[in-house]
Amino acid sequence: VRAIDEAAELLSRLPGLGRKSAVRIAYHILKSDESFARALAERIVRLKASIKACSVCGCYSEGDPCEVCSDPGRDRGLICVVEQAQDAASIEQAKEYAGLYHVLGGVIAPLDGVGPEKLRVRELLARLEGVRELIIATNPTVEGDTTALWLQRLIKDTGIVVSRLASGLPVGGDLEYADRLTLSRSFRGRTRVG
Amino acid sequence: VRAIDEAAELLSRLPGLGRKSAVRIAYHILKSDESFARALAERIVRLKASIKACSVCGCYSEGDPCEVCSDPGRDRGLICVVEQAQDAASIEQAKEYAGLYHVLGGVIAPLDGVGPEKLRVRELLARLEGVRELIIATNPTVEGDTTALWLQRLIKDTGIVVSRLASGLPVGGDLEYADRLTLSRSFRGRTRVG
């Protein structure tokens, strides 16, 4: 049936959905009542319409500046640099950090043709006054580490402390299943406990 | 951000999507261009609006009767009985079967309070004239087998051959997830049970 195939085709472009799961979802929508399909469609459209990037930090937000940037309770001396907006959302959920964010919009990846000029670096430099620590929370990948190193050198002379999120074994994880790189890092980054 | 949470909440009600995948999909929609979100929303609504159950066989269709029921090239002496409409769609993809379908709308499941009277059995009986074989393609589960046995007894005296799809489908599995080759083989190897 064409309408099912068409819906499944679009659904299968979403991350994590293959052809079969997309078809299954299409049938599920068919079987559920119409109000569900309408609500789902409406929220998808509203998502795009109501959310923009914060003009200060680049996080997704319904207002501008975003909730974090406009919260007087956040520590303005700390900026956490992330690759993409959802990384900031993940960090928010951990409820551990009370500073501000800065979304780079990617990482330096010469093989993909992404140089520093394609990232929101200039916007970051414009925000550094009054900042005492920059926490670079790019992913612990080759590109993420390269980007962190590059940023660290860039602001070396400002006197701002630059830190990097600790990398090591995931909490609740099993040493037996850790990959060698993670294990090496967890050794190098070991902390004294006694 | 509220709009993201709301969209993720609805998305996580779709089959196979947990909370994390729903959030990931919401961010993906945010990052893609607006035409994609619009097209996706539109197809979800169109899905419900344009597709109905065929009044003859019960399959999902944009017209009534459906494409299969109104195709003069299909063998009207064969009816394949399936639990739900998407099972017929899976069988169509195997391109092995050229008869008609009948959607039961479920299986006999006493524990869930589903007796034969809740299934489209009367509609099936009304279609048996001129039929020489009934292929019962309910899932190879306890309920599917029970329903097959019950149907077989019900039409025993009509002289119509009753068959069941051959094993080849993993026992306890779900027809919806069978690959095309397995489905084809199970059609060719179907065994007469009555």
| Biggest sheet layout of chain A | 4 strands, parallel
N- to C-terminal separation of chain A?
Answer: 67 Å
SSE class of chain A: alpha/beta
Which bin fits the share of residues in helices of chain A?
25-40%
Radius of gyration of chain A: 21 Å
The pLDDT mean of chain A sits at: 89
- The total beta strand count of chain A reads 6
Enumerate how many helices of chain A there are, as a single number: 7
Ranges of chain A where pLDDT stays below 50 over 5 or more residues in a row are none
Largest interface: A-B, 47 and 48 residues
Helix-strand string of chain A = HHHEEEHEHEHEH
Quaternary: homodimer
* Morphology of chain A: globular
Strands side by side in the biggest sheet of chain A: 4-3-5-6
The fraction of residues in strands of chain A falls at 5-15%
Topology of helices and strands:
Two copies of one chain form a homodimer.
Chain A lengths: L1 H10 L7 H13 L2 H17 L1 E2 L6 E2 L13 E8 L2 H10 L4 E5 L17 H5 L7 E4 L5 H13 L6 E4 L15 H9 L6
Parallel strand pairs in A: 3-4, 3-5, 5-6
Antiparallel strand pairs in A: 1-2
